[in-house]
Design a protein that fits this description.
Elements lengths: L6 E7 H6 L3 H9 L2 E5 L8 H7 L5 E4 L8 H4 L7 E4 L10 H5 L3 E4 L1 H21 L1 H9 L5 H4 L11 E5 L3 H10 L5 E5 L5 H6 L3 E2 L2 H7 L2 E4 L13 H6 L5 E4 L8 H9 L5 E4 L19 E3 L8 H4 L2 H13 L18
Parallel strand pairs: 1-2, 1-3, 3-4, 4-5, 6-7, 6-9, 7-8, 9-10, 10-11, 11-12
Helix pairs in contact: 2-15, 6-9
């Protein structure tokens, strides 16, 4: 099928499209075929609107908040060959029926992983050196806090870092950690041992990782298997000097148990960008803990990197329609174990 006959549906509303694209990416997309944009004026299409618009479409661009490709929507997808998700996880948008119909799914998770990785490293360093505490003290004109502080600071160099999950972000983080000469333990029952060892890391059981790590960083998907996988029992396994970092999904950690662990100093500190309930309620006990470092789910793409998301999808569309190998295709079996 030539460019003139190819139709591409962009479900993303114009306001979000401006945030996730560059003029160059839009131009390249329009060179691939006739592009139908979301002109509905709302944040996103409804399922019924997607069902109406998907007929006669060869490719579809989605992003945060797009409608789900249900069996009912797909009844009208008479020509749909590829869905490009200009964001990370496709779980909320793609159903098994999509794969059963042979529709290819790609995403921009690799772009986002770079930002999340850098953020996770920053959180690790913040926890170990307690940078936010010193910043807050200086904002309060309290130079003497450096002598009165109730905590010890630590270096990252030479420590043991445990990664729970070994997807894109964890693999990127393992690379970023190399200059710090750390020992990296990995717990991921779905990652091949040779892949973990090939990246200079050590496969470990969850218990070994928790007992031996100075830093535990969570990068797993939220599934029935991982829900509250870090609870009271697991937190008590960790070193009293250890820090816990979570940039993955809030419900992987039992929040009630974590609050208790931080209050009673089972662990030194925790840095959390994700929570079981978002937004975090204003009366939540985490706010009161000096050793809890909280950010409002912002570890995803920086404003700068967010503008690369559409371009990553367009690159995959270019490969797909020219018969080249894809670099970010989502496999159906990954939906259960990956974010």
């Amino acid at each position: 099928m030539g460019r003139a006959a190819r139709r591409i549906l962009v479900t993303v509303p114009r306001a979000l499209l401006r945030e996730i694209s560059t003029p160059e990416a839009i131009e390249r997309l329009e060179r691939l075929g006739e592009v139908v944009y979301n002109e509905r004026g709302r944040e996103n299409l409804t399922e019924e609107e997607l069902r109406e618009l998907v007929r006669g479409v060869d490719a579809c661009v989605t992003s945060w908040g797009s409608p789900r490709f249900t069996a009912r929507v797909l009844e009208n997808a008479d020509r749909l060959k590829i869905i490009g998700h200009a964001a990370g996880s496709v779980k909320p948008y793609v159903t098994e029926e999509v794969f059963r119909r042979g529709i290819v799914v790609v995403n921009a998770a690799g772009v986002i992983a770079v930002s999340v990785t850098e953020f996770a490293l920053a959180m690790i360093l913040n926890c170990l050196r307690r940078i936010p505490d010193f910043t807050a003290a200086m904002k309060g004109r309290d130079w003497g806090f450096r002598e009165r502080r109730p905590f010890q600071t630590c270096d990252l160099r030479g420590k043991t870092v445990g990664l729970i999950g070994f997807g894109l972000v964890a693999r990127e983080l393992a690379e970023l950690l190399k200059p710090f000469k750390v020992r990296v333990l990995v717990y991921d029952p779905y990652a091949p041992r040779e892949e973990i060892e090939g990246r200079g890391c050590v496969p470990a059981s969850l218990e070994t990782l928790l007992r031996e790590s100075d830093v535990v960083s969570i990068h797993a998907a939220l599934t029935e298997e991982t829900y509250h996988m870090i609870g009271e029992q697991e937190l008590k396994m960790m070193k009293r000097t250890a820090v816990l970092v979570n940039t993955a999904r809030g419900a992987i950690v039992d929040t009630e148990a974590l609050v208790k662990a931080l209050r009673e100093k089972w662990i030194a500190a925790a840095a959390l960008d994700v929570f079981e309930e978002e937004p975090l309620p204003p009366d939540h006990p985490l706010y009161e803990l000096d050793n809890a470092y909280l950010t409002p789910h912002v570890a995803g793409p920086s404003d700068e990197r967010k503008r690369e998301l559409l371009g990553a999808v367009v690159e995959e569309f270019e490969r797909f329609f020219s018969g080249k190998e894809l670099t970010s295709a989502v496999k159906p079996e990954e939906l259960r174990v990956r974010a």
